[in-house]
Design brief:
By secondary structure, this protein is an alpha+beta fold. It is 34% helix and 9% strand. Strand 6 and strand 7 form a beta hairpin. Helix 2 runs antiparallel to helix 3. Residues 1-9, 235-241, 248-255, 264-269 and 274-280 have low confidence and may be disordered. It binds FE2/S2 (inorganic) cluster. FE2/S2 (inorganic) cluster is lined by residues 102, 104, 106-107, 143-144, 146-147, 150, 152. FE2/S2 (inorganic) cluster binds at residues 102, 104, 106-107, 143-144, 146-147, 150, 152.
């Protein structure tokens, strides 16, 4: 793994941040001007500008923070306070692909912890560490509001749903080998720097990328379908109290991901069937 070194040493006097090369600075200044013009107050542009400098170096360096401060008339302390608060800003050089394994409660119990442990062993890195080849940074991530597809892995903030240790291992192997990897939903995958530029507010100009963004996935729509009297794919219908839950036919249950995301995770543990919790005394 690569040596992790924080760019900020709290309490230590620091030399001024090195400047960007002239060509880089000119390009970033033009981009920053465009971003700042979108807001009535320039300081509102700080979050997208941090993504912009992240798109240049793959992380928010001291040089990037000094650039943001200068463009927005802020102090570097103000910029640092924001950049260190949000976990989407990386503080050290990292891989082309940030592989985040959700280990919040639901994903953890559905297999997220097992996936993280397998990837740690397979890649030979720990949390927030990068493989020697600079391809993959592994990290724990918090809930990404995709609990209905647990356990979830995200690569550069694109979803890979219903993962297993095996499918996640294939996923990182393919990323490292440079093979095409398709997220379960959303736009096609791009590198971390390219993702950062899109998050800075510049359009994703890859052909078909916007159209591929799609809408809610089947697991998110099950409640709506049931309310309308339609059976959702993979719906586990919870019957009245005392009745066993039953699985609806798996309509439209084709694989959505290129990485063997089994869609039956929520119904795949016969020892723990879903159903209404029994109340005391029943
Ligand atoms: S707990 Fe993992 S997406 Fe919500």
């Amino acid at each position: 793994m690569t040596e992790a070194r924080s760019e900020v040493s709290l309490g230590m006097p620091q030399l001024p941040a090195p400047a960007y090369p002239a060509e880089v600075r000119a390009r970033l200044e033009a981009d920053a001007k465009e971003v700042i013009a979108r807001y009535p107050g320039s300081r509102s542009a700080l979050l997208p500008l941090l993504h912009l400098v992240q798109s240049e170096e793959g992380y928010v360096s001291r040089t990037g923070m000094a650039f943001c401060a200068e463009q927005l008339g802020l102090t570097t302390a103000e910029v640092t306070a924001v950049a260190t608060f949000y976990t989407m800003y990386r503080r050290r050089p990292s891989g082309d692909y940030q592989v985040g394994v959700c280990t919040n409660t639901l994903c953890a119990v559905m297999g997220g912890d097992a996936i993280f442990d397998r990837l740690k062993e397979h890649l030979g890195v720990g949390n927030d560490e990068t493989t020697e080849d600079g391809k993959v940074t592994l990290e724990h991530i918090e809930c990404n509001a995709a609990c209905d597809f647990a356990p979830v892995v995200m690569v550069n903030w694109e979803f890979f749903d219903n993962q297993t240790p095996e499918s996640a291992t294939r996923l990182v192997d393919d990323l490292i080998a440079g093979r095409t990897v398709e997220p379960t939903r959303g736009a096609p995958l791009c590198t971390y720097k390219e993702t950062a530029r899109i998050l800075a507010g510049f359009p994703d100009e890859r052909p078909g990328a916007v159209a591929a963004s799609g809408g809610a996935g089947p697991a998110s729509l099950i409640g709506l379908k049931l309310a309308k009297g339609e059976a959702g794919p993979q719906a586990r219908v919870v019957g009245p109290r005392g009745e066993a839950p039953r699985d609806e036919p798996q309509k439209g249950a084709e694989h959505l991901s290129s990485h063997d995301a089994p869609q039956q995770t929520s119904a795949s543990d016969p020892d723990n069937p879903a159903g209404p919790a029994a109340e005391e005394g029943e």
